[in-house]
């Protein structure tokens, strides 16, 4: 009886201890559990990241968006106006077969270009060389007009032989087989592109015109210059010495 009571009390005491231990362990475990609920079958190390807050979009920001395929790939090309030197050599000049008050102007413009070209020594930057003669500095003409034949031929595209020789004899010399001139600079402010012509007299092979020529930017009153023309081998040429015109 006593043994049975002891065993019964022991069993009851064991049950209380067990319940107490279980309750203590459960309380401790309850305090250790984190508030994040883990998906079934996954350890805590593989827990999903918190979901984005409401209103957050996964779309790319404007700076991350891909460029539009409709946009032009390159900017429009910039057109740069070309420049033309004020003094040029124009071997392609075809001449004037019929002279009148209108087409006398292009002939004068071309003649002025050739006059300015030879007085400048020819091609710009050619640096054909210089020499001293009688205490003065001379420069050689560029190769394209560097001989008497080349120089005369170039001028005779717009001037008669007589007018060309008058210019060459006044401003140029031949030295060591090459054409040269005193080293100097100069130019005219007359704007021949705006000139007008009035015929004073005419024959089948000779004409005389009075040219009215304004200055660039109308800096001075107009100049009135009388110019003679002659028909040479079917083309009209200026028969007045260039230095008396330009």
Automatic annotation (TrEMBL):
Superkingdom as given in the UniProt entry: Bacteria
One Pfam family in the UniProt entry: Endopep_inhib
Signal peptide as annotated in the record: 1-30
InterPro entries per record: Endopep_inhib, TA_system-associated_sf
Alphabetical keyword list: Signal
Disordered: annotated span: 43-89
Composition bias type Low complexity, residue spans: 43-86
Identification of the protein by name: Uncharacterized protein
Originating species: Paenibacillus hunanensis
């Amino acid at each position: 009886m006593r043994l049975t009571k002891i065993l019964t009390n022991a069993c009851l005491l064991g049950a209380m201890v067990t319940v107490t231990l279980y309750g203590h362990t459960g309380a401790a475990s309850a305090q250790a559990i984190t508030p994040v609920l883990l998906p079934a079958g996954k350890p805590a190390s593989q827990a999903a990241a918190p979901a984005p807050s409401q209103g957050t979009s996964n779309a790319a920001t404007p700076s991350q968006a891909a460029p539009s395929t409709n946009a032009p790939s390159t900017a429009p090309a910039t057109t740069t106006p070309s420049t033309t030197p004020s003094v040029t050599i124009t071997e392609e000049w075809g001449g004037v077969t019929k002279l009148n008050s209108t087409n006398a102007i292009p002939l004068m413009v071309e003649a002025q270009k050739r006059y300015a070209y030879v007085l400048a020594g020819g091609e710009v930057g050619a640096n054909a060389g210089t020499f001293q003669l009688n205490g003065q500095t001379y420069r050689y003409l560029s190769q394209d007009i560097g001989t008497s034949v080349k120089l005369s031929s170039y001028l005779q595209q717009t001037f008669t032989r007589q007018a060309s020789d008058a210019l060459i004899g006044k401003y140029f010399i031949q030295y060591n087989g090459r054409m040269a001139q005193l080293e100097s600079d100069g130019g005219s402010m007359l704007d021949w592109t705006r000139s007008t012509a009035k015929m004073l007299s005419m024959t089948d092979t000779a004409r005389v015109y009075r040219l009215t020529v304004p200055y660039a930017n109308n800096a001075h009153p107009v100049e009135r210059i009388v110019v003679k023309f002659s028909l040479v081998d079917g083309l009209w040429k200026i028969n007045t010495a260039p230095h008396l015109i330009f």
